Automatic annotation (TrEMBL):
<feature type="repeat" description="TPR">
    <location>
        <begin position="338"/>
        <end position="371"/>
    </location>
</feature>
<dbReference type="GO" id="GO:0005737">
    <property type="term" value="C:cytoplasm"/>
</dbReference>
<dbReference type="Pfam" id="PF13181">
    <property type="entry name" value="TPR_8"/>
</dbReference>
<keyword id="KW-0963">Cytoplasm</keyword>
<dbReference type="InterPro" id="IPR011990">
    <property type="entry name" value="TPR-like_helical_dom_sf"/>
</dbReference>
<dbReference type="InterPro" id="IPR051476">
    <property type="entry name" value="Bac_ResReg_Asp_Phosphatase"/>
</dbReference>
<comment type="function">
    <text>Axonemal protein which is implicated in axonemal and/or peri-axonemal structure assembly and regulates flagellum assembly and beating and therefore sperm motility.</text>
</comment>
<keyword id="KW-0812">Transmembrane</keyword>
<keyword id="KW-0677">Repeat</keyword>
<protein>
    <recommendedName>
        <fullName>Tetratricopeptide repeat protein 29</fullName>
    </recommendedName>
</protein>
<keyword id="KW-0802">TPR repeat</keyword>
<feature type="transmembrane region" description="Helical">
    <location>
        <begin position="13"/>
        <end position="33"/>
    </location>
</feature>
<dbReference type="GO" id="GO:0003341">
    <property type="term" value="P:cilium movement"/>
</dbReference>
<keyword id="KW-1133">Transmembrane helix</keyword>
<dbReference type="GO" id="GO:0036126">
    <property type="term" value="C:sperm flagellum"/>
</dbReference>
<dbReference type="InterPro" id="IPR019734">
    <property type="entry name" value="TPR_rpt"/>
</dbReference>
<keyword id="KW-0472">Membrane</keyword>
Length: 433
């Protein structure tokens, strides 16, 4: 028994060192793992704080992914486009894009919640538009560096065309203005792009209510295209378009002058409008221009001149006067109705169509009574009386020219009762009784 005890004791002593070594190994291994985990956490925290570190980490741990590709997957679409512009050296394009995004945001903030622009996505959140801006802005900048201003203009014009939706009108106008500035530098197309730029700027100014400024642009457009055969995509010559724009803008200017009682200045402006309408070769436009000028002369108290102008384009003028008269009647604009009826009456009276003249002067007289304007009522009564006399004169002269007993007795009977000869109930049998 003593021997067995002594053996177990020696055996235990023999096993003790390896056991202690194993315990120490486990102890140190535990602390190693703890330190390693702490280091790993610290590394991840560092990566989160350092975006470049994230890119490096992704590039090292994802096979085939570069640092730039990692950044592209993390960044917004706008930021990737901006970075690409800067990497390729398009600093002007980057600055312009950034400015446009800022302007959009400023417009949105100014409009406030509930506005249409507030409900829409920001410009930087619309990839399609960002693509267009990237492509044509960098194209314009590259052309500018090479001195190819016609290509620069074309890129800017394409951008103006891209943003033709009503909500993007400000962007379209911005690029039309850029086109206008660039067009002054183009020297190889005979002034075609400059003319086009003036036309676009004229339309913008007209839309914004700057009529005088619009007239200046359209006049420049006309001068640059006079005698040339340039055409737009619809087949119209640039010069005919210039004539149409000038006719329209001169008419608008004249309207404002008439409102301010500047009759003579309005007449001068409408004469220019009529000249443009004739050069434009549009009969409808020419007839309307003649009518407007006649109306201005009538307002100025120069009825004879108004009549001579109107008679130059009788069919067109009477057509537009008729439309104007119907519109005035429907809108209960008595003064305008009187003006239109008097002009139509004068036209028919001058042409010897006394029945029609009598009808229009009669309507003018009725409309004048609703205005409580005694001088106007008296004036229209005078027209009415003259037209009635002319109407009666036709039947009277036909009896005189007949030179027969029946006509003579008819005239005597009429003289006694002074009835309307055109509707006189007397018959030949009554006369002989």
């Amino acid at each position: 028994s003593w021997n067995s005890f002594h053996f177990r004791k020696n055996y235990d002593y023999f096993l003790l060192p390896p056991l202690l070594f194993f315990v120490l190994f486990l102890f140190f291994f535990f602390f190693y793992l703890k330190d390693l985990g702490h280091l790993r956490v610290q590394q991840l925290i560092h990566l989160i704080k350092d975006k470049d570190g994230i890119d490096d980490y992704l590039a090292k741990n994802i096979k085939g992914l570069s640092k730039q590709e990692a950044a592209a997957n993390r960044n917004s679409y706008k930021k990737n486009i901006c970075i690409d512009m800067l990497r390729q050296g398009y600093h002007k394009s980057f600055s312009e894009l950034f400015t446009l995004i800022q302007k959009w945001n400023a417009l949105r903030e100014a409009a406030g919640p509930g506005s249409a622009i507030w409900q829409r996505e920001s410009l930087e959140e619309q990839p399609d538009k960002l693509d267009q801006l990237y492509h044509f802005l960098t194209g314009a900048e590259a052309a500018q560096r090479a001195g190819h201003y016609e290509e620069m203009y074309d890129n800017q014009l394409n951008l103006a065309y891209c943003f033709n939706d009503p909500e993007d009108k400000w962007l379209s106008n911005y690029f039309y203005e850029q086109c206008f500035n660039t067009a002054q530098l183009v020297k190889i197309d005979g002034g075609k792009r400059e003319a086009q730029a003036h036309a676009n700027m004229g339309l913008i100014c007209e839309e914004q209510g700057h009529v005088m400024k619009a007239a200046e642009h359209f006049e420049a457009f006309y001068q640059l295209t006079e005698g040339l055969t340039w055409k737009d995509e619809t087949g119209h010559t640039y010069n005919s378009l210039a004539c149409e724009h000038l006719w329209r803008i001169y008419t608008l200017l004249a309207d404002k002058m008439l409102e301010n009682k500047e009759h003579q200045q309005a007449i001068k402006t409408l004469i220019k409008a009529l000249k443009m309408a004739k050069e434009g070769g549009d009969m409808k436009m020419e007839g309307e221009a003649a009518y407007c000028l006649s109306l201005a002369y009538n307002f100025a108290g120069e009825q004879q001149t108004a009549l001579s102008v109107s008679l130059g384009k009788v069919a067109e003028t009477t057509e537009y006067l008729g439309e104007f008269m119907k519109a005035a009647e429907n809108a209960h604009l008595s003064q305008s109705l009187v003006d239109a009826c008097v002009l139509l009456g004068n036209i028919y009276n001058e042409r010897g169509k006394y029945n029609e003249a009598f009808e229009y002067f009669s309507r003018a007289s009725e409309a004048a009574k609703t205005l409580n304007n005694l001088p106007l009522v008296e004036e229209t009564k005078t027209y009415y009386g003259i037209a009635k006399a002319h109407k009666l004169m036709v039947a009277f002269n036909s009896r005189i020219e007949a030179e027969d007993p029946v006509s003579l007795k008819y005239l005597l009977a009429w003289k006694e009762n002074r009835s309307d000869m055109c509707t006189d109930p007397l018959t030949v049998d009554n006369i002989y009784q």
